[in-house]
UniProtKB/TrEMBL annotation:
GO function terms (MF aspect): hydrolase activity; metal ion binding
Region (Disordered): 1-24
Cited PANTHER family: PHOSPHATASE RV3661-RELATED (PTHR43344:SF13), PHOSPHOSERINE PHOSPHATASE (PTHR43344)
Biased composition (Low complexity): 1-19
Lineage of producing organism: Bacteria, Bacillati, Actinomycetota, Actinomycetes, Mycobacteriales
Keywords of the record: Hydrolase, Magnesium, Membrane, Metal-binding, Transmembrane, Transmembrane helix
InterPro entries: HAD-like_SerB, HAD-like_sf, HAD_hydro_SerB1, HAD_sf
Keyword Membrane: yes
Transmembrane regions listed in the UniProt entry: 260-283
Entry similarity comment: Belongs to the HAD-like hydrolase superfamily. SerB family.
Protein name in UniProt: Inhibition of morphological differentiation protein
């Protein structure tokens, strides 16, 4: 019998309860969610372009090219080579930046610029997993300084993200941990071992073929607004294909920043410019 093609859904039809039929607690499990284009509806790179340009960290030409390249990337999806070029551009571009300058930008623009919007369906999905007693983990290649505050605002239990190196108040251009591809799997396995999650009973969600290793490491993978390559994988494996299309503002979900919160988000620019580097490198590859 030929398997039927999975149809797009707004959310999983059901999520298993946190207790077994006898009423005894189940083993602790988790749901792992990618961030950009899975939980939020747009890239942080484009959202933060203007303030970073105003502060001289990037120029208008880079902003325009990044915007166009972002459009191309959304059409074709990002592959491994493009993500590696992002890493190289991030290293070259951010070396020597002053942390205090980035703090100042975040302080002045946080609530006006947090316009990457959360999908209402993603917020509902997170709430459903929490209701079932699961931990919720946001896993992203973006910098931990922006991933962690968004994860907290969403009520997530943990956040795992790329970590940058800082020395003498400046970014060295080195990456301590790149939370991408097999790096995401490494982080997930380490957290699962620490928290006691049996991965065969865990869930994962992403939009990008670059997150295929993350989806394959859990027992219940789903794809969200998938790129072409990931859609093919989902169909071949019979994974649920979810459609998220109702973004809502994060403004009401993130409290006004305290001094501690601003310190936590000090290097938010790395998340934006990491994605900007990816789009710029992609443009250079595709457009003469």
């Amino acid at each position: 019998m030929t398997a039927s093609t999975p149809q797009p859904q707004s959310a999983p039809a059901s999520l298993a309860a946190a207790t077994d039929p006898s009423g005894a607690p189940r083993t602790r499990t988790a749901a792992f969610l990618d961030l950009d284009q899975t939980v939020i509806a747009k890239s942080s790179a484009l959202a933060f372009s203007k303030p970073f340009m105003d502060q001289g960290l990037i120029n208008r030409r880079t902003v325009l090219k990044s915007s166009y390249a972002q459009f191309l990337m959304l059409l074709s999806g990002a592959d491994h080579d493009q993500m590696e070029r992002m890493r190289a551009h991030l290293t070259n571009m951010c070396t020597g930046w002053d942390v205090e300058q980035v703090k100042s930008i975040v302080n002045e623009t946080m609530h006006d610029i947090v316009t990457p919007l959360i999908f209402a369906e993603a917020a509902e999905l997170i709430a459903d997993h929490k209701l079932c007693g699961r931990d919720v983990v946001v896993v992203s290649a973006s910098g931990e300084e922006i991933v962690a505050p968004i994860a907290r605002a969403l009520g997530a239990t943990h956040a795992m993200a790329t970590r940058m190196v800082v020395a003498d108040g400046k970014y060295t251009g080195e990456i301590a941990f790149y939370c991408y591809g097999e790096g995401k799997v490494q982080a997930i396995r380490e957290l699962a071992a620490r928290e006691g999650y049996p991965l065969e009973h865990c869930y994962a969600y992403s939009d990008s073929i670059t997150d295929l290793p993350m989806l394959q490491v859990v027992g219940h993978p789903s794809v969200v607004n998938p790129d072409r390559a990931l859609r093919k994988e989902a169909i071949a494996n019979g994974w649920p294909i979810l459609t998220f299309s109702q973004p809502v503002s994060l403004r009401d979900r993130i409290p006004a920043p305290s001094g501690a919160a601003l310190a936590t988000t000090a290097a938010v620019g790395f998340s934006a410019l990491a994605a900007g580097a990816l789009t710029y490198s992609l443009l250079r590859r595709l457009v003469p």
